[in-house]
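Sequence, please.
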C-alpha cells in the first residue's frame, strides 16, 4: 500500500535550510488551538535511521518541553528496549506540535486534534523528516498516520510495513492505546504484537 505524499502549501517566509531554522519557525508560529502553551519539538540525531512520529505532546511533554516522555513514552521505551531498539539513536517527534487539551479543574485533559489541525502542521512535519533523513518513518497511531499519508486511513487494516512517499514506513498503534487496554489477556497479546512490530521496524532500516 503506497501512501500519498502531497505537498502542502509552505508557510510564508524563507524556506528553512536547517532543523534549527525549522524549529525556530515552529516555535514562533501561532498554534491553531486556543489553549496551547509551547511547541514541543522533535528530538534525536539528524541522520537517525528511524523517525517515530506520535500524535501530539501530552501534559508531561508540554511541561518538560520534550516529546514522548510521559506514561505512553515510558511504555514505548520499554517496548523499544525489548525489541533491541536504542532510543538515543532514534528521532522522535509528533504530527502536532502543541498540546491540545480541555481544562477540568486543575487537570488538563488530552483532546484529539482535528483534521485541520493535523494539516496545519503537515508541511513542517514533512520538512522535518526531509532534514532528518531517516530510512524508516514510523506512524504511531491514527493522527500520525493521517499526517504522514496526507489523508485519513484505517489504522488496523493497514498496520505493518508501508511507504510514505519515497521513504520506507511502518504503521503501528500508539502506546497510549496499549495503556488503555483493561483485559489482562488482551493487553498481554497486544504487547507481544507491539514488540514484534518494533522488531520488524528495527530490521527494516538495515541496509539492503
Ligand atoms: N503522545 C504522543 O503522541 N506524543 C507525545 O509526545 C506524548 C504522548
Amino acid at each position: 500500500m503506497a501512501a500519498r505524499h502531497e505537498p502542502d502549501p509552505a508557510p510564508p517566509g524563507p524556506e528553512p535550510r536547517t532543523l534549527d531554522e525549522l524549529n525556530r519557525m515552529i516555535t514562533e508560529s501561532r498554534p491553531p488551538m486556543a489553549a496551547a502553551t509551547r511547541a514541543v519539538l522533535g528530538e534525536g540525531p539528524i541522520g537517525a535511521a528511524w523517525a517515530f512520529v506520535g500524535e501530539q505532546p501530552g501534559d508531561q511533554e508540554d511541561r518538560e518541553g520534550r516529546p514522548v516522555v510521559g506514561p505512553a513514552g515510558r511504555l514505548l521505551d520499554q517496548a523499544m528496549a525489548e525489541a533491541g531498539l536504542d532510543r538515543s539513536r532514534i528521532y522522535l517527534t509528533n504530527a502536532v506540535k502543541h498540546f491540545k487539551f480541555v481544562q477540568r479543574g486543575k487537570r488538563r485533559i488530552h483532546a484529539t486534534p482535528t483534521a485541520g489541525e493535523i494539516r496545519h502542521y503537515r508541511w513542517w512535519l514533512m520538512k522535518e523528516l526531509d532534514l532528518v533523513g531517516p530510512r524508516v518513518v514510523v506512524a504511531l497511531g491514527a493522527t500520525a498516520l493521517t499526517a504522514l499519508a496526507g489523508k485519513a486511513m484505517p489504522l488496523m487494516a493497514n498496520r505493518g510495513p508501508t511507504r510514505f512517499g519515497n521513504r520506507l514506513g511502518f504503521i503501528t498503534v500508539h502506546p497510549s492505546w496499549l495503556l488503555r487496554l483493561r483485559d489482562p489477556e488482551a493487553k498481554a497479546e497486544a504487547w507481544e504484537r507491539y514488540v514484534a512490530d518494533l522488531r520488524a521496524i528495527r530490521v527494516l532500516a538495515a541496509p539492503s
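Residues 54-58, 61, 67-68, 70, 72-73, 94, 174 surround uracil (CB under 6 Å).
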